[in-house]
Design a protein that fits this description.
The complex is a heterodimer. Chain A is built from 17 helices and 15 strands. By secondary structure, chain A is an alpha/beta fold. Chain B is of the alpha/beta class. Helix content of chain B is 40%, strand content 16%. Classes of the chains: A alpha/beta, B alpha/beta. Chains A and B meet through strand 1, helix 1, helix 2, strand 4 and helix 3 of A and strand 1, helix 2, strand 3, helix 3 and helix 4 of B.
């Protein structure tokens, strides 16, 4: 069943805002100036990005037995309550949203008293190991001394109460990632573990969405690679505290965790490697690289064997799906650069060309790689808005969009299939098992009979 | 007299006062954003930081399944300090460029109000600067801390009617006939698009000229169209808003709206338009009132089909009332929604035992308590709670306390639904986990009936799926809590009336514990290889024969693999409701693995049923943990209740590193089995006792086993013939006759129900009893991977690769190399891809390849080769930099980087190192470098080819 992309749907092309032009480019092989990125969003452009607070929440939220208190008005708490599919093997305190629910009087008279009372109440009722206190926009403005409140609470209760000063306006989501990483360093401390006794790896930047951390840990267990802790997928406070013991940090979602990995390298003497478990090729090279970084020849060999066996097992799958998928055109709009890069390559495994690719928080290096990877003519965007996504999906005749929840209805309105490579996914897309799920998902959306009727 | 708690100030015990636990409300800008979608060609810009707009867009997009575009003025720290005027103006300009909206709602967030932004003043300034603009700008003060989405919705509408310039009544454009049609404003609170469509079609039946404010019916539930419009094409026209002051009447569908921002009150006060406030048209009385109001205004009679629809609704109410009389409802959401649903419930005889709104709402309890109290008295329900300013921490606690059996609200109640087993009817914003939020109907006779039927059917579903077990448990199995599930015990103590089913999870069916093979499928996860007893009918080499067919070896899975197997099975096997651990050894002898497996699976599936099989030796030790993990069905193999008989069956029993033999072994096992079974059944766990019938050993003893099992509270016995396994001590015994098995079972029936459909499954069986579908999983030969790993482990354990040096020293460079192996330096930030410029590399990863295998050697750190253009101008520094690079990677054959400048390229070539620019994966790039090197070998010196 062949079909034309964006069939049956026309759209009025919106103009590109002047300020946005430098963040949009057409791939032309290598060379030329880079794309403008890693900047604050343009006012009124309808950016798809969230805020700094969101970034910090993303990074810290999966710590399962921590109490996350949002010091601010209710919206910040309501919109981040249990919306990410991070799974837990232990406690599920993190799936609750605790908030000081600031009202008008708190704005006028300050929210410190309420925060103090809230922390006391949380300690008494929940006995958490650690409390993270997120300072939201208004807290940053009315000047509550969150640091002092947390320091006093630590003394009073004898547990860690860690302030996360990430008011939404303080930067982009990337700023929040960095601040979340700082809070983790605050928790785990900066005393290096004796290197000669270091063992195993930490897995950074996998948040155990749909159990993906477990899949990676499962591979590691099978291959004899010791995983100290996920940071922060299915992490417990106790597990995190052992993070300094790791020999190597393995960084999966580079966008959110690069800063932390770098800090851990400087302060804790833990080198890091970047990996991606999306797609056969990346999963294999990541596992091999992990094994090599640990330096045990037997593990390396076992890993190579395991990977070629797993790859071989997927060959029939690729062979079955490729005729259904080859020649289609993909559009990608995701959070970070590393995922976009993996997706371009994963689509290629099925003979699908990427015609539009953008990210919310990609860095210049990510875009360098993307430029080199895609075919000439592919549109590359940083911090895009709906009008641009609409324009380029239609213009480039995309058959499928990979994106976040907000982008899904737009794709459907344009007659474009959709892949939920986002925090809401309910099936894993990582590892070898993820390849199967990815193939099933993109095929079932692109080759759905519903498009016959539009 | 029923008691009720009315306010958070006197919160019941256990509630948190300062901390909001799981909010049952959103903030004002959510309400403004929803109402904005009821105005044609209107766009919203939220004045504040970027996240507010994005979060609201996500929330609305998942509920309505429509693209939601909301702009933000994207305030930053600078804005926070110096004010956000520049950002706001730029935002408005950009919004006009991108969308060209007719109306722009500028709504404030917490941040804008806190830094004291004068938005109305700024908008005046903007209008002065843009006299040519036709856009209508509306300023809305909607800081998140000052109210919920409910207030936000009305604040926007109030701003609209008070800021849109009033149209002058024109005399020439209306014909005499249309002049007679009364103009009516219909202002609605938060509704679903489908309900809004119903309101419009109903009003259309009467001879009135109606203005609906707002009208979200099409914009938030759009039809498929060949043309996509970014800007809303339906909704209330701003020109109609301008005409509202000329209406003969306003009907405001809202109950708890303060006059301060009631659009109807505004129109009345400033333009003399009389208004009527009606409850949302949900439930018989309020729908009647709504229709009657239009009949009154228009002078038309009520259309007969509406009368007929009313009759059908009433008829259905009567048909369902007895089922619904068992309903003890939790109603939560916005104040008006709660009020409307409560009115509907009490008409039907469903007792709203908990009514909770997240908004702070004066008058809420006073309005709702009397109606609930009246019904509660009639039905002898002892207590209920009506609370405003509530969170889900309160709602969960009260729901359990009041023995609720149904919840009506948004999908935010889903966690209580899962945890407490109270079904949730989703009919209020937001609905994130189901589809159809935009199509939910609650209004009008058909809409209310749809909601009522959904509630009734949820109650019926509970009833029909639980009554058999519940009645059997109460009257057949004997009294007391011994057979109730733990959650039943927990909740029933507080239940208002014994005839009302309390919050019990829906009954679930286990294929082995039913009296025939039901449609339920199960998966056995072979995670337990070790056994702690030796039976004479068993050969250790094979799986335990009492659960599995003889001579079978199962590939043992790790907990991770088991999880994967389960996840895969779930996608391929229908009604896979049971996960079982049945060996191949004893489940409890492998407790770590079993526990981990169950935990992993529980984390991804809250409802699947857990069972396990054991010889019972370790039951007393792990019973509590089993129950905690949610294991509900346990099978204990008990072949004897007399140590003398047992001694003939068990060779040895190992407990805590002590091995017992003979009668001691049998006695140790037996005492633990008895203690374990007794404890489990007292905690409500269903226990099946398996008994292997061995002719000449325990065949005359089975009756005693069954009697003991019954006494211990077991639910069922499964008497199985021993299958002689060659090589076992009992290997040469004859097969037990079917007739013997049959007669033994018949005799034992007097003690316990007998399982007669046992298939003696494998430890890794998948599917329904009797139809193992393992083949679907197309497994490779058992244990292949395992053997590979084992093979490797047997190699010389001292062979290790030297650790990569981290200090960048070049001392450890391997000296000699095989000529056909290339050593390649790679510029890569992390090692996945070649993703770094040569000049930016702080370190190189060193790889070796023979063209096939690519092997990582080490990492060489160097000071940045290029740290800026000024450096590069200096020859000396450049030379110094070259030297450093060559020191680090001089022994390499090639360097791979994303890009490389001309000067360094020449330098490398001159040193005999091949520079390659690529963006491949490291492996491919290294192979490419190797191939290139081979290709250039034998050709003239490298710099010629460079």
């Amino acid at each position: 069943m062949k079909r034309n992309a964006a069939r049956g749907t026309t759209a009025t092309m919106a103009p590109i805002l002047e300020e946005r032009k430098s963040s949009i480019m057409t791939a032309d092989g290598c060379g030329g100036a880079g794309i403008a990125c890693d900047k604050v969003s343009v006012s009124g452009s309808v950016s798809q990005r969230a805020c700094a607070y969101c970034g910090a929440r993303v990074v810290l939220n999966p710590i399962t037995n921590a109490c996350h208190i949002i010091h601010g008005p209710i919206g910040c708490s309501s919109y981040t309550w249990d919306i990410r599919g991070s799974l837990t093997s232990g406690e599920d305190l993190f799936r609750h949203s605790f908030c000081t629910d600031m009202r008008e009087t708190d704005i006028i008279f300050g929210g410190e008293k309420k925060l103090i009372a809230s922390i006391d109440e949380a300690v008494e009722a929940l006995h958490p190991k650690v409390i993270f206190v997120y300072a939201t926009c208004i807290v940053g403005i009315i000047g509550d001394d969150v640091h002092q409140v947390c320091a006093d609470a630590e003394e009073r209760h004898g547990i860690r109460v860690i302030p996360v000063q990430a008011p939404g306006f303080s930067g982009t989501k990337s700023t929040g990632y960095r601040l979340g990483g700082q809070a983790i360093m605050d928790l785990i401390g900066s005393n290096p573990f004796p290197r000669e006794r270091a063992h195993g790896v930490n897995i950074l930047g996998d948040f155990n969405l749909a159990g993906e951390t477990w899949i990676v840990k499962g591979y590691c267990a099978h291959l004899g690679i010791d995983v100290v802790t996920g940071i922060t997928g299915d992490a417990s406070v106790e597990g995190l505290m052992r993070a300094p013991e790791a020999k190597v940090n393995v960084v999966q979602c580079a966008g959110s965790m690069s800063a932390l990995a770098e800090t851990m390298e400087t302060e804790l003497d833990i080198p890091f490697i970047k990996v991606s478990f999306y797609g056969i090729e990346d999963t294999t090279s990541s596992l091999v690289r992990m094994a090599e970084a640990l330096g045990d020849e037997r593990v390396v060999r076992a890993t190579r064997d395991f990977c070629s066996e797993e790859t071989r097992k997927l060959e029939p799958l690729i062979a079955r799906y490729t005729p259904l998928l080859a020649g289609k055109r993909a559009a990608i709009y995701v959070g970070g650069g590393f995922k976009a890069i993996s997706l371009i390559r994963q689509f290629r495994e099925f003979g699908i060309e990427t015609v539009m690719v953008g990210t919310q928080t990609g860095r210049p290096e990510d875009y360098d790689v993307i430029r080199s990877l895609v075919n000439p003519g592919c549109v590359i965007l940083d911090d895009a808005n709906p009008a641009e996504l609409e324009r380029f999906m239609v213009e480039k005749g995309a058959d499928i969009l990979v994106g976040g929840v907000k982008e899904r209805p737009l794709a459907y309105k344009l007659g474009v299939a959709f892949c939920d490579h986002n925090h809401e996914r309910k099936h894993p897309l990582a590892g070898y098992v993820g390849v199967r799920n990815f193939a099933e998902e993109i095929n079932s959306s692109m080759n759905s009979p519903v498009w016959r009727y539009v | 007299m029923p008691a009720s708690h009315a306010s958070k100030l006197i919160k019941p015990e256990g509630a948190l006062v300062d901390l909001n636990v799981n909010p049952c409300k959103m903030c004002m800008p959510m309400g403004t954003s929803q109402a904005v979608y009821g105005i044609r060609a209107c766009m919203e810009i939220l004045h504040g930081s970027q996240g507010c707009a994005t979060y609201i867009r996500r929330h609305m997009a998942t509920h309505y399944n429509e693209p939601i575009d909301i702009a933000s003025s994207s305030l930053t720290e600078q804005g926070a300090v110096y004010g956000g005027k520049a950002n706001l103006f730029k935002g408005i300009d950009n919004l006009i460029r991108l969308y060209n909206p007719g109306v722009i709602a500028v709504c404030t967030t917490c941040m804008a109000d806190t830094i004291g932004e004068d938005v109305p003043g700024m908008l005046n300034l903007w209008r002065d600067e843009h006299p040519e603009s036709e856009a209508t700008l509306i300023a809305v003060s909607s800081p998140g801390y000052a109210g919920t989405q409910f207030e936000g919705w009305f604040r926007f509408l109030h701003a609209l009617v008070s800021q849109v310039e009033v149209a002058k009544p024109s005399n020439n454009e209306t014909s005499p006939s249309s002049r007679q049609r009364p103009l009516v404003n219909i202002i609605t609170g938060p509704t679903s698009p489908a309900d809004m469509r119903w309101i419009k079609s109903l009003v259309g039946r009467f001879d009135v000229d109606a203005i609906f404010l707002p009208d979200i019916s099409d914009n938030l539930d759009g039809a498929r169209s060949p043309k996509y419009n970014r800007l809303s094409t339906s909704g209330t026209d701003i020109a109609d808003v301008a005409r509202m002051s000329q209406a003969q009447a306003t009907i405001e569908l809202a109950t708890f709206i303060p006059d301060d921002y009631s659009p109807a009150a505004y129109l009345h006060k400033h333009h003399g338009v009389p208004y009527t406030r009606l409850n949302l048209p949900v439930g018989l009385r309020d729908i009647d009132a709504f229709i009657a109001e239009f009949a009154r205004i228009s002078g038309d009679p009520v259309p007969t089909d509406l009368t007929a629809a009313r009759g059908r609704y009433l008829d259905a109410m009567i048909d369902s009332h007895k089922y619904n009389a068992e309903g003890r409802a939790v109603v939560f959401g916005e104040p008006d929604f709660c009020y409307a649903v409560c009115r509907m419930c009490v008409e039907e005889g469903i007792v709203p035992v908990v009514v909770a709104t997240g908004s702070r709402c004066p008058g809420f309890a006073e309005a709702i308590e009397p109606m609930v109290a009246e019904l509660a008295s009639a039905f002898l329900v002892d207590g209920f709670d009506v609370v405003d300013d509530a969170d889900f921490g309160d709602i969960e606690r009260l729901a359990v306390k009041r023995g609720a059996n149904i919840m009506v609200g948004s999908s935010d109640g889903r966690r209580i639904e899962a945890k407490c087993g109270i079904p949730l009817v989703r009919c209020e914003f937001p609905i994130h986990d189901h589809v159809g939020g935009q199509r939910v109907r609650t209004m009008g006779y058909e809409g209310s009936l749809m909601l009522l039927d959904t509630i009734t059917n949820s109650l019926l579903q509970r009833k029909t799926s639980t009554f058999r077990a519940a009645i059997r448990d109460e009257f057949y199995e004997g009294p007391g809590p011994t057979v109730a599930s733990p959650s039943q015990m927990e909740h029933s103590s507080d239940a208002p009336s014994s005839s009302v089913p309390s919050a019990v999870p829906a009954a679930r069916i286990h294929p082995c514990f039913e009296d025939a093979c039901p449609a339920t499928a199960r998966i056995h996860l072979p995670v337990a290889p070790v056994c702690n007893i030796s039976c004479n009918y068993c050969v250790r080499r094979f799986d335990c024969p009492n659960e599995s067919r003889p001579g079978v070896v199962t590939k043992v899975l790790s907990p991770q693999e088991a999880l994967e197997r389960y996840l895969l099975a779930r996608t391929r096997v229908e009604s896979l409701d049971v996960v079982g651990i049945a060996g191949p050894g004893d489940a409890l002898a492998n407790w770590e693995q079993v526990r981990e497996t169950l935990r992993l699976i529980r984390a991804v599936d809250e409802s699947v049923l857990f069972c396990l099989s054991t010889n019972g030796l370790l039951l007393p030790r792990y019973a509590d943990e089993l129950i905690e993990l949610g294991v509900t069905h346990v099978t204990v193999t008990m072949n004897a209740v007399d140590p003398i008989v047992g001694a003939q069956i068990y060779r040895q029993v190992t407990l805590d590193h002590i091995t017992y033999t003979g009668e001691a072994a049998a006695a140790v096992l037996l005492s633990n089995q008895i203690a374990g079974i007794k404890y489990l059944t007292s905690r409500g766990i269903l226990v099946k006792v398996n008994c292997v019938l061995i002719e000449g050993v325990n065949d005359r003893h089975i009756d005693a086993v069954a009697a003991m099992a019954a006494e211990l509270g077991a639910t069922m016995a499964n008497i199985m013939p021993m299958i002689p396994v060659p090589g076992s001590p009992f290997g040469n015994r004859p097969l037990v006759k079917n007739s013997t098995v049959r007669s033994t079972r018949e005799r034992c029936e007097q003690y316990l129900p007998q399982m007669r459909h046992c298939h003696q499954c494998r430890a890794d069986a998948i599917g329904k009893l009797g139809e193992d579908v393992r083949a679907l999983f197309d497994e490779k030969p058992e244990g292949a991977v395992r053997h590979q790993v084992a093979g490797i482990a047997e190699e010389d354990p001292n062979r290790r690769v030297v650790d990569a040096p981290r200090d960048g020293s070049t001392a450890s460079h391997p000296q000699k190399r095989v000529p056909h192996v290339s050593r390649v330096a790679v510029a890569s930030r992390g090692g996945m891809l070649v993703d770094q410029h040569f000049g930016h590399a702080k370190a190189f990863l060193i790889y070796e390849t023979d063209g096939q295998e690519v092997r990582y050697r080490d990492r060489r750190v160097l000071k940045n080769y290029c740290s800026g253009s000024s450096d590069c101008d200096e020859h000396e520094q450049t030379d110094e930099a070259y030297k450093r690079v060559l020191e680090a990677i001089g022994d390499c054959d090639a360097v791979v980087s994303l890009r490389i400048g001309e000067a360094p390229r020449k330098m490398l070539c001159a040193s005999g190192i091949l520079p390659i620019a690529t963006c491949e994966t490291v492996e491919d790039a290294v192979r490419e470098a190797h191939a290139e090197r081979l290709a250039t070998q034998g050709s003239p010196p490298l710099d010629a080819s460079c």
